[in-house]
Amino acid sequence: MTTILHIDSSARRTDNSVQEHNSISKTLAAYFIDKWVTFNDEDKVIYRDLGLNPPEFICQDWISAVFTPDDKKTDKQKSLLILSDTLIEEVVKAEVIVISSPMYNYGMPAVLKAWFDQVVRVNKTFTFDLARGDFPLEPILSGKKLIFISSTGEFGFEIGGIRENMNHLGPHVKTLGKYLGVEEFYEIKSEYQEYGDERHENSLDEAYLSIEKLVQQLS
Ligand SMILES: Cc1cc2nc3c(=O)[nH]c(=O)nc-3n(C[C@H](O)[C@H](O)[C@H](O)COP(=O)(O)O)c2cc1C
Predict the structure, then answer these.
(1) Where are the alpha helices (DSSP H) in 51-179?
(2) Residue 76 Cα, ligand 1 centroid: separation in angstroms?
(3) What's the number of domains the chain is made of?
(4) For range 15-34, the mean pLDDT
(5) Structural domain range at position 191
(6) Rounded mean pLDDT of the chain?
(7) How far, in Å, from the CA of 153 to the mean position of ligand 1?
(8) What's 141's domain CATH number?
(9) Residue to probe by mutation, ligand 1, list 18, 21, 23, 152, most atoms within 8 Å of CB
(10) 181-215 pLDDT, tens digit each
(11) pTM above 0.90, yes or no
């Protein structure tokens, strides 16, 4: 049995009366999970909708608590880290992580960054040792697969695309995944949402097809 951690991060829902108002990234991620469980019906899914339930931003007291050794942490510090502890436990349990995200201002939504800030944590998901020289961080966790599903209004964010250098979404998530133990990264994207034309329809069709192929490949 595999545990899958499914994280959605769009501010939009998927149950609007006007279908065009629904989140594309959440709809695609739900399709991935649906296909996955038909192939792997024993698997367990842990689900978080960060758009509907945003994690708290970290603060100075949170950082102090993280850097206080466990046996010296006060009750207040322990309680400040409860959310982080819980979210990290979910990452630890998961062999497969599915993250869906809209592109907002060429990067990830603040709620998803808040989640990463809560879960990428020293001595929990990575260690820091200056003896390693210029790259002192090393992940503690390993062997995870990350499927990243995104939706953008514009297009051309791929390598060699006309907006490659404006893409601070997929590359950012891929970089951070390493510190959650991700060793295999897959990206599926829908583009052109703002144009609402045939290119968008084709992009969406391709995304659904890529999901079907990827689920078969990984199952
Ligand atoms: C606040 C906001 C900022 C956005 N910024 C960008 C952007 O920088 N680049 C882009 O291509 N699309 C941008 N978009 C369009 C969204 O990426 C697009 O609507 C996408 O489908 C949203 O994902 P969702 O359908 O899962 O909610 C933005 C949309 C919003 C609401």
Answers:
(1) 60-66, 75-80, 82-93, 110-119, 170-177
(2) 38
(3) 1
(4) 97
(5) 3-218
(6) 98
(7) 5
(8) 3.40.50.360
(9) 152
(10) 999 999 999 999 999 999 999 999 999 999 999 99
(11) yes
